[in-house]
Design goal:
alpha+beta, Immunoglobulin-like, 2 domains, 5-stranded mixed β-sheet, 8 helices, 12 strands, 27% helix, 32% strand, disordered N terminus
Length: 257
């Protein structure tokens, strides 16, 4: 079985790109099946009547820290025999974008290697701390019948991810952000006037600042409640700053403080 031919990829992509409504209709027709879930979680396997059947799906590892890679393995059967299976694709569930084709390892075992670059070019990798992505393994037989199952893979960084890889601080964002980086989380932190709306920040910086503001408002409300951190008009007082530094140390460190 070879998955690399143009005609095969065309057939697989056409099947994988079937709309969600079409898959829902399959579910209503009784296509739901149960399967053994692997590390990473996900949903029960499903198939068209007479289509390939996913018995199990695993990601090893299911949590990818600091630009690591994983291998997703599927155990597959087919009512008409494995020779009836023309191949499978790994698809980003939410975006519906094809990531990579599966390779038949032996018998009913199929696998695909996945790294951060693969996800970044299909769904975009940008987050603070960690982000979970739901992926779909979808297989097709010679008659166009499909079988599929999903699995969750989590990407994690010490600080944040931007442009498909982990970054050491918010200041590494300038090459992957199109917004103005002149206002950073640290510049708002040390601003003597009330902090301006965090919407002025680029996405990753904004999430870091908002996490700090949430901590300051919830844990230091008596000292910070009337400040710009909490939607007020006052600049952060020394009492507010002291409290935030004592209680919100991790958030301030991520902010560049």
């Amino acid at each position: 079985m070879k998955l690399a031919t143009i005609s095969l990829l065309t057939l697989l992509c056409a099947a994988a790109c079937t709309t969600t409504s079409a898959r829902d209709q399959d579910d209503d027709d009784g296509g739901n099946r149960s399967a053994t879930g692997g590390a990473g979680g996900g949903s029960s396997a499903q198939s068209d009547p007479g289509g390939p059947e996913v018995q199990s799906i695993f990601a090893s590892p299911a949590r990818l820290e600091n630009n690591a890679a994983t291998v997703i393995t599927v155990q597959l059967t087919d009512p008409d025999g494995l020779d009836d299976v023309v191949g499978g694709l790994l698809v980003a569930e939410e975006a519906g974008e094809v990531i990579r084709p599966f390779i038949q390892v032996s018998g009913g075992t199929f696998s695909v290697n996945l790294d951060w670059y693969d996800l970044d070019k299909t769904v975009g990798v940008e987050f603070v701390s960690e982000q979970t992505y739901r992926l779909r393994a979808e297989f097709t037989d010679a008659a166009g019948h499909r079988g599929w199952s999903t699995i969750d893979v989590t990407l994690a960084c010490d600080v944040a991810a931007c442009g498909g890889s982990c970054i050491d601080s918010e200041y590494d964002q300038d090459e992957c952000e199109t917004c103005d980086e002149s206002a950073t989380c640290a510049s708002l932190l040390y601003n003597e006037s009330p902090p301006p709306p965090s919407s002025q920040l680029c996405p990753v910086s904004r999430q870091i600042f908002d996490a700090l503001a949430d901590c300051a408002c919830s844990q230091c409300n008596a000292a910070c409640g009337d400040t710009g951190y909490c939607g007020g008009s006052s600049a952060p007082s020394y009492a507010c700053q002291d409290c935030a530094y004592d209680i919100c140390y991790d958030e301030i460190n991520a902010c560049g403080g």
